[in-house]
Specification:
By secondary structure, the protein is α+β, with helices and mostly antiparallel strands. β5 and β6 form a beta hairpin. The strands form two sheets. Strands 2-4-5-6-3 form a five-stranded antiparallel beta sheet. Strands 1-7 form a two-stranded parallel sheet. The protein has one domain: Roll (Thiol Ester Dehydrase, Chain A), CATH 3.10.129.10. The chain is 27% helix and 31% strand.
Length: 171
């Protein structure tokens, strides 16, 4: 399995925020922003692995700037680190006021995804090739975050629940 360059899976989603994305006062719901974060991360994971990938964890997301109806929102995502069957994707959310052109950093999050085979079992995935100094820095930082996450998971042991019928089986 050949390693892949970070740039091969990097994406940027862009969307105008509409009234259905907001509360009654015109602020975009945080949950909608989180949905964009998860979508952007999932696209990067799928581009890197060409597999079904599921979200295993989301590090905290602090909303440092509001998003309003009419803003253009950017979800910039790239892969930071690959373990054996899992990977960390970093997602940065920015907003642009289309009337003033002002850009703001809304928030950032790190998501862990696991690639699955046809039987929904974790599968080995390609390593990454960091290309830039930023890529190398993100890789080293992500490696430390992964170690911390693994320590936290040991504290919260959980059991697998029975599988729900897959969508293909419903057809």
């Amino acid at each position: 399995m050949e390693a892949k360059k970070v740039s091969e899976s990097k994406i940027e989603l862009t969307q105008v925020m509409m009234p259905e994305h907001s509360n009654a006062t015109g602020n975009v719901h945080g949950g909608y922003i989180l949905k964009l974060v998860d979508q952007a991360g999932a696209i990067v994971a799928a581009r890197h692995t060409h597999r079904n990938c599921v979200t295993a964890s989301v590090d905290r997301m602090d909303f440092i700037s509001p998003v309003y109806v009419g803003n253009l929102v950017f979800a910039k995502a790239s892969i930071n680190y690959v373990a054996n069957t899992s990977m960390e994707i970093g997602v940065r959310i920015e907003a642009e006021c289309l009337r003033t052109g002002t850009h703001t950093h809304v928030g950032s999050a790190y998501l862990s995804f696991v690639a699955l085979d046809e039987n929904d079992k974790p599968v080995k995935i390609p390593q990454i090739i960091p290309e830039t100094e930023d890529d190398r820095r993100r890789y080293e930082e992500a490696k430390k975050r992964r170690e911390f996450r693994l320590q936290q998971v040991k504290k919260h042991k959980h059991s697998q629940q029975p599988c729900i019928v897959r969508l293909e089986k419903l057809k």
